[in-house]
TrEMBL record:
This is Muramoyltetrapeptide carboxypeptidase. Keywords: Carboxypeptidase, Hydrolase, Protease, Serine protease. It comes from Kineosporia succinea. Its EC number is 3.4.17.13. InterPro entries: Carboxypeptidase_A_C_sf, Class_I_gatase-like, LdcA_N, Peptidase_S66_N, Peptidase_S66C, S66_fam. It holds the Pfam family Peptidase_S66C. It is an enzyme of class 3 (hydrolase).
Amino acid sequence: MRIPPVLRQPRPLEPGLHVAVVAPSGPVLADRLERGCDVLRSFGLKVSLAPHVLDRHPGRYLAGTDEARAGDLQDAWCDPDVNAVYCARGGYGAVRTLDHLDWDVMRKASSARPLKPFVGSSDSTALHQAFARRLEVQTFYGPVLGGPVLGFPDPAAVVLESLRAALFHPSEGRTLTGTHSLVPGVAEGVTTGGTLSLLSSLVGSDELAPAEGRIVLLEDVNESPYRIDRMLTQLLRSGWFAGAAGIACGSWERCGEPEHIDRVLLERLGGLGVPIVTGLEFGHGTVQLTVPLGARARLETGALIIG
């Protein structure tokens, strides 16, 4: 099995550097966003909101027009005075920005100056996949600023520690411990993945790179077991899982009984013959650890070891 190359790692942040907040997906509640921004300020970082972050599209499920959301993201990525780009929330809409981004311009910005971290989760899966495929950069799958963890009072200390470590010490190794292994074994590869529903929605697009030689991170929220089955089946039938090194599952928040979810995962993915670990603390749960995508990792009994 061919292990793909590790993607380029962003520069470490340090106090005083500038984080731009963008909203490529759903509309954001200002009070929740402010709490999330306060977390970054507590790290000693300067925070600014992109011009359209608090916009609301007439359809009410998007944070402004496609062009405005994409423009904010591209401007922040290309601005030499911005040192990191952070997503305000998930929801829906990031995939609609992909055709409005000038990837040539963003690629030039990536190579012309120190590489900046990009952080988001859930609907941002579409952007993580695109950044890996088109810009060949590592990104961070971590809690969004206006979401139900950072956007609420008193997020768990372990969440803050994980995020701070990712931003300030990206080259340091980290270990996520799961609950159990559905399929035992050891695998090495490069991390990819994110929210299952977003991955399945990218089938047939240029942004979804094959999972060959990769450890695939999977999680989702508010999806019934039969819908998880359907999305896994779609990815399997498309050939996307071919050659995957292993499967690392995070939270399946409000998706049904854990035993039922495990049964679906084992039934659909057990035939791949690769290790499958479940219960890792990333995704939509109350504890959302930050995980680099595009990094070298090792999957073994009950754990994902990165770096």
